[in-house]
Amino acid sequence: MEEKITKAIIDEELKKSYLDYSMSVIAGRALPDVRDGLKPVHRRILFTMHLSGLQHNKPFKKCARIVGSCLGRFHPHGDQAVYDALVRLAQDFSMRYPLIEGQGNFGSIDGDPQAAMRYTEARLHKLGEEMLADIDKETVDFVPNFDASTKEPIVLPAKIPNLLINGTTGIAVGMATNIPPHNIAEVCDALITLIENPNASIEELMQFIKGPDFPTGGIICGIENVKQAYKTGKGKIIVRGKAEIEGRNIIITEIPYMVNKALLVEEIANLVEQGILQGVNDIRDESSRKGIRIVIETSSQPEVVLNRLYKHTQLQTTFGIIMLALINNQPKLFNLKDLLNSFLIHRKEIVIRKTKYLLNKAEERVHILEGLKTALANINDVISLIKKSESIEEARKGLATNFKLSERQANAILEMRLQKLTSLEQEKLASEHAELLEKIKDYKETLSSEQKLWQLIKQEILEIKNCYTDKRRTTILETIEDISEEDLIKEEQVVVTLTNKNYIKRTPLKLYKKQRRGGKGITVVSTKEDDFVKYIAVVNSLDNLLFFTNKGKVYTLKTYKLPEASRYARGKALQNLLPLNPEENVSAVIAVRNFSHEKYLLMATKHGMIKKTPLKEYETNRRTGIIGIDLKQDDELVSVRITDGKKTILLESSDGKAVVFHESQVRPTSRASMGVKGMGLASNASVVSMEVCDGPLVFSVTENGYGKCTKLEFYRKVSRGSMGVIDIKTNERNGNVIDAKVVNPEDEVILVTKNGSLVRVSIKDVPIIGRNTSGVRLVKLASNDKLVDICRIKKKKDFTLEGYESVV
User: Fold this and answer.
1) Which of 652, 808, 665, 643 is nearest to 715 (CA)?
2) Cβ–Cβ under 8 Å, residues 568 and 502
3) Which of 355, 433, 370, 364 is nearest to 404 (CA)?
4) What integer is the mean pLDDT of 406-426?
5) Which CA distances in Å does 120 have to 43, 97, 101, 109?
6) For the segment 262-306, what is each residue's pLDDT rounded down to a tens digit?
7) How many CB atoms within 10 Å of residue 145?
8) Which of 97, 119, 230, 715 is catalytic?
9) CATH classification of 489-805, choosing from 3.40.50.1110, 3.90.1150.10, 2.60.40.10, 2.120.10.90?
10) Fewer beta carbons below 10 Å: N end or C end of the chain?
C-alpha cells in the first residue's frame, strides 16, 4: 500500500490544529450552554439516568451502572471523569440545588473522596427531573451519538434556571467561566418581573436577586462589587465565613464556598505554629451532621484574632465572577439580565414546540375519533362490508371508498373492539372528541397569542418557585469596611514589663493599687532567680513600641501585640516577637503614637554621647529592624526620649552627677549617625539616665532604695560635654544612682526591684530637699535585693483614661 504524504506549512497546520482543539474544549467540554446551564458530560449523565428510568420515586441503582451506560451510549471518555461529574451533581456542599440524589459516601466538605462507583448508588433528584421534563415531546433537537448508534439531546428542556441557581465553573482554552449559585426563589421572582416588564433594569432585577447564594452560606462583603459583576458579567466579591464570639472562643459555623474545611483548620494551626496568628490557644473541629462548628480558643481579644483569621486564612476568600457561557455554540460574556432573558427565550421555544407537539397529537386523535364516529353511525353497513370482504386490505379499501375515510381511520375501525359498540363507550368517544376539540382550540390560541404564551411560562416559573423555594443561606452586607486590628483594640493604659532575660508582657494599669512611701510593694512579675525586671512603662494599648538594642538597632511592635498576662506571670520571650540576634539586648523602649515630622528622638549612650534625629526617620514596618544609632565598639545605648527640639535636657551619671543644658546645643543628624559628646564622666562612672525637663522636680533614686526630690532650678545650666554638678550622694548606704526622673508634684512613680517587687508611690510623699544630699528611704529592700528601675506615671488634668498617660 502506497503511503500518502500531504505537505503542509508547519505554522499554518499548528494554528489550524490548535484552533480545532480550542473549539473542541470550549464547546464540548469546559463551558456550559446558557439555556440549560450544563456541560456535555452533565447533560449526558442526566439523560442516561432518564433513559434508565431512575426517577426520584424509583429505587436507587449502582453508580457503576450509570457511568457504564453513559460511557457506552454518549460519552466515550474516562470513567473516573464521568463519575466525578456525577458525584458533584449530588453534593449538597457543591451544588446549591443538587440534581442527583446519592446514597452512600459521596465525599465531604473536608475533602474526603467519594467511595468507588461500585459501592455508591444514585437516582434523579426531583429537581433533576425538571431538567428533563417534556423531553419526549419533541421539545429539543437530537443529534447522533459518537458512533451513530443512538441519538442524544443537544440541550435539555430545563424548566428550572439551572445556570443561575447552581452556577458553574470551567477553564477552557484562553477563557474561563465562574458563575456563582443563586437562590431559586429570587431568580424566579426576577424572571417573572422580566416577563411582566421586559425593559426592567439590572438595578430593578437586583431588588429580587440580592446576590449569590452559596450552599455553604457565608457572608458577602459589599453589594457594590455584586452590582458591578451583574452589570458587566465580571467582578470580584469578598466572601467570609460566619463566626460568632462566645466569651473568648470564636465559633465558626459557615465557611466560604469551595473551601476545604479540613485544610482551613490545618492552615490555622500552621499559622499559629509559625507565630503569624497570635493569641490562639486551641483549635477544635466539632462539626457534625447538624452543621459546621470550628471552635478556636483565644488567650484574649477574640475580635482581633478573628480579624487576623479573615486576613491570613481562607476564612475570607475572593470569588471571581465570570459569567461566560455558550449561545449558539459560541462563547459570550453575559450580564445578569442577558442570562435571565436567554433562559426565558429557551423556555419560550420549549413551550412552543411542546404546544405544537400536543396540537399535532390532538388533531391526529380527533381524526381517528371522527372515523370511529362515522363507523358507529353506520355500524350495520360497516359490519356487513367487513364480513363480505375476503381480506383485510379489501375491507380497508371498502371502508375508505364507501364512507370517505382515510387509511388511518379505516385501520382504526378494523382494530376497534366490539365493546366500543356499547352505549357507554359511544358516549366516551363523543366526550373525548369534544374535549380534544377544546384543547385544539386552546393550543391554537396559545400559539397565536404572545401574551398567552408568556402567561404559560410565568405559571411554570411560579410552580417551580412554590415547589422548591427555600431560605437564603448567604448573608450580604451592604458595605465592607477594611477593619484594621487597631479598630478592634480596646484603648486603655497598660503597664509594659520587660525583664533582664527579655520576657515581656502587658498588664492593665488598674491592677496596680497605689501605696504610701515605705510600703513593701506588690509583685509585678514572677521571675527566675537569675532574672529581674529592667524596664517598666505605662503606655497606651495603641502605641508603637520602639525597642532600641545595645547594638544600635531599632525594632517596632504594637503594644496590643504584646501578650497580656497577670501581675504574677513572667510573660513571653521577646525573641518570639522580635528577630533579635543572640548578642543583642534591649536597652531602651519608647512608646510612640504618631511619627510626627516635628518631633525628635534624643539618645544618650553609656559613655556620654548624645544624638538628636527626626522621629519620622524611625517609622518602618520592617520586621528585621533598622539602624537606630552608630555606636563605638564598647559603647551602649542608655536612654531615648522624644522631644520637640525646644527642651531642656538632664543627664544623670552613676556617681550622682547631673548635667542640665538646652537641646539646641545638639544639632539634628541622620538616623545612622554617632552624635556628639553630652556629658564628661569620671573614669568609673557612666550615664544612667537622660530626661526631658517637663516638670519642676528631679526625682533621683539609688540602688539601695534611697532617693529624694530636688527643685530643678537648683541645677544651673551648663554646656553639653561638661562634668555637671552633684545631684545625690553615692555612699555605702545609698549605693550608685540607678535613675533620675524629672517629675511634677501630682505624679506617681513605680519602683521596681531586682527580685520582681513593685512599689507605687506618690511624689507628694517624697520630701523635697537640696542637691548634694543623701535622700530618704523609699522602699524597704531585702538583704539580697536592689532597685533596678523606676517608672513615672504622669497625672493628666482631665483625669481621663484612668487619669494617667504614658511618658515618652
Assistant:
1) 652
2) no
3) 370
4) 82
5) 20, 20, 11, 18
6) 999 999 999 998 878 888 999 999 999 889 999 999 987 788 889
7) 16
8) 119
9) 2.120.10.90
10) N
Largest CA distance in the chain: 153
Q: Does domain 38-157 have CATH number 3.90.199.10?
A: yes
**Looking at the predicted structure, is the pLDDT value of residue 184 above 90?**
yes
User: Model pTM?
Assistant: 0.69
At the fourth CATH level, which superfamily is domain 345-473?
Answer: Topoisomerase, domain 3 (1.10.268.10)
Q: Are 551 and 806 in contact (CB under 8 A)?
A: no
Higher pLDDT, 533 or 477: 477
119 is catalytic: yes
Distance CA 201, CA 399 (A): 63
Q: Which tens digit of pLDDT belongs to each residue from 38-52?
A: 999 999 999 999 999
Q: 502: closest CA among 459, 444, 558, 550? A: 550
- The region that residue 217 occupies, defined by phi over 0 for left and psi between -120 and 50 for alpha, beta otherwise, is left
- Helices 79-88, 40-51: axis angle to 10 degrees equals 80
Look at residues 788, 659, 791, 677 and name the one whose alpha carbon lies nearest to residue 736: 788
Q: Which residue has the higher pLDDT, 430 or 19?
A: 430
- Return the pLDDT at 2: 62
CA 484-488-489 angle, 5° bins? 110
393-403: buried (b, 16+ CB within 10 Å) or exposed (e) per residue? Answer: eebbebbbeeb
Domain boundaries, the chain: 38-157, 201-338, 345-473, 489-805
For the chain, give the number of residues. 808
pLDDT of residue 488: 57
Render pLDDT for 13-37 as a digit per residue (tens, 0 to 9): 777 776 666 666 666 678 999 999 9
Q: Which among 605, 564, 601 is positioned nearest to 587, based on CA atoms?
A: 605
